[in-house]
Amino acid sequence: MRNSPEYDLSHATWQKSTYSGASGGDCLEVAEGHPTLVPVRDSKNLGPVIAFGASAWVVFVGHVGADG
Q1: Which residue, 18, 34, 62, 65, is the most exposed by fewest CB within 10 angstroms?
Q2: Tens of pLDDT, residue by residue, the chain (68 residues)
Q3: Among 68, 63, 20, 62, which Cα is nearest to 41's?
Q4: Distance CA 55, CA 27 (A)
């Protein structure tokens, strides 16, 4: 993903998953405030970001929830 002005994540507010434990293990964070884009990153490695379209995110979360 290119860091274009409409997707500039340098000042994003990241929300950690409510399923994350207190030990700092396998945690995902999602950036808020992007209605058509869902940026996701690893809370331990703040570098790479995967960006889902909003509808793709709904499908992804549905599949993950069905397996776990």
Answers
A1: 18
A2: 455 445 778 888 999 877 776 666 678 899 988 888 899 998 888 878 889 999 999 998 898 877 65
A3: 20
A4: 22
Is 41 in contact with 52 (CB distance < 8 Å)? no
* C-alpha to C-alpha distance for 42 and 30, rounded to whole angstroms: 9
Distance (Å) of CA 28 to CA 5, 43, 45, 48, 55: 24, 6, 10, 12, 19
Length of the chain, please? 68
Per the DSSP assignment, residues forming a β-bridge with 45 are 42
Long-range contacts of 58-61 (CB under 8 A, 24+ apart): none
CA nearest 53: which of 65, 35, 30, 29? 35
